[in-house]
Design a protein that fits this description.
It comes from Pseudoponticoccus marisrubri. By secondary structure, this protein is an alpha+beta fold. Helices cover 51% and strands 6% of the residues. It is globular. It starts with 7 loop residues before the first helix and ends with a helix.
Length: 386
């Protein structure tokens, strides 16, 4: 059977790009070491299987040398000490999926005569964080008084998601690539990203992160939308201004806005808080419906905790919440919410497909659906009829 001539450098680049060890790949493809030595090559059928295994388009294997692969969005992540190398295929594929969805939805809204969203890019990173945060809370109707609908901070996340979507944010939350549970997203690599656009601003939140982390990430990415600067982030509630390099002004600003969105400092300063940090932390979490991690961050901002004391308290609280999450049961948070794909987006894709304005194949691809049966089930769930 005819063999395909593939550059050994491209083969190794493809393996490393996918994050697969040499031994693991050899278990699947026994002749892989020989291919690297130029002793023959894969058959076309083997190459197709290899491409699927390494999550790489087939045509990439025919390149004469490995390409310089760039992230498709600005990279705002704090890199020091994280050990990032080449971006994972999971991150790149997730961004590409969201870019396709955002582009489609933008064209759909523009074609329907939808108005521009005035809040997109309405501020700059030179504006006071409290002012920007106030605008976000106003647009989303997220003022502290309205949070009483949520019994706790987990329910507040649901409310936060719903209000962001109602304001016009195309919001996707997922912990895997598409529906592939074997391709998990790594919160240490990235926690979220934003695509700024006046018609269809998109925010993606890494659903593999803790629920507490997702609340902060959502607020952080909204800050990116408000200043019109999309990009990839890995910021968390324990990231303080002194942790960031001097060239990370945008991330420091978005962190400050996120903290202010969740717990406005003016209201915090007017509260009578216990001198006991644990009691104060619990009070803030209860009043503002935020996680105890965010509450600790604001106690640090308030001057109630030193840098070292904050880090120690934060790490201990994070461990406690992780253990609590492992012990709890209650199903898949996002499967029951249908949060992986924004319902406004999904409804638009399904309705235009039923009307014949979007090809069924494109609709399946945009929604990560396999066949007509799952398409009909999704349409029924969303209440979309022809």
């Amino acid at each position: 059977m005819a063999q395909v001539d593939i550059s050994p450098d491209v083969l190794e680049w493809a393996r490393e790009r996918a994050g697969m060890s040499f031994d693991s790949l050899v278990q699947r493809f026994k002749k892989y070491p020989a291919w690297l030595e130029g002793k023959g090559g894969p058959t076309f059928k083997q190459l197709e299987t290899l491409a699927a295994t390494l999550h790489l388009p087939l045509g990439m294997f025919f390149l004469p040398a490995p390409p310089e692969e760039q992230l498709p969005l600005p990279d705002f992540r704090r890199m020091a000490g994280t050990g990032y190398g080449r971006p994972s295929t999971e991150l790149i594929d997730t961004i590409h999926t969201c870019q396709r969805r955002q582009s489609w939805y933008r064209d759909h809204l523009a074609g329907a005569g939808a108005p521009l969203l005035e809040f997109v890019g309405s501020y700059t990173a030179g504006d006071p964080p409290a002012i920007v945060a106030g605008s976000i809370r106003t647009v989303l109707k997220l003022e502290v008084g309205s949070r009483s609908e949520a019994a706790n901070w987990e329910e507040f996340l649901r409310l936060f998601i719903a209000l962001a979507r109602e304001a016009g944010i195309l919001l996707m939350i997922n912990g895997v690539v598409g529906n592939n549970t074997h391709r998990k997203l790594n919160p240490r690599e990235f926690r979220g990203f934003a695509i700024s656009d006046p018609f269809a601003p998109l925010v993606f939140v890494n659903g593999a992160d803790t629920k507490a982390g997702q609340i902060f990430t959502l607020a952080h990415e909204l800050a990116h939308i408000w200043i019109g600067k999309g990009g990839i982030s890995n910021a968390a509630a324990d990231d303080l201004p002194e942790d960031w390099a001097s060239d990370s002004a945008v991330e420091r600003f978005c962190n400050a806005v996120a903290a202010e969105v969740l717990v406005p400092m003016a209201q915090l300063q007017n509260m009578e808080l216990s001198g006991d940090i644990d009691l104060a932390k619990t009070t803030i979490a209860r009043v503002f419906r935020v996680s105890t991690l965010v509450a600790l961050r604001r106690l640090k901002d308030l001057g109630r905790l030193s840098y070292d004391a904050f880090q120690a308290a934060y790490d201990a609280e994070l461990d406690f919440l992780k253990d609590k999450a492992k012990a709890s049961s209650g199903g898949d948070f996002y499967a029951t919410m249908g949060a992986r794909v924004d319902p406004h987006f999904a409804s638009a894709v399904i309705s235009t497909a039923l009307e014949g304005r979007t090809l069924m194949g494109e609709a399946f691809d945009l929604l990560n659906l396999k066949n007509s049966k799952t398409f009909r089930e999704e349409a029924r769930r969303l209440g979309v009829t022809s």
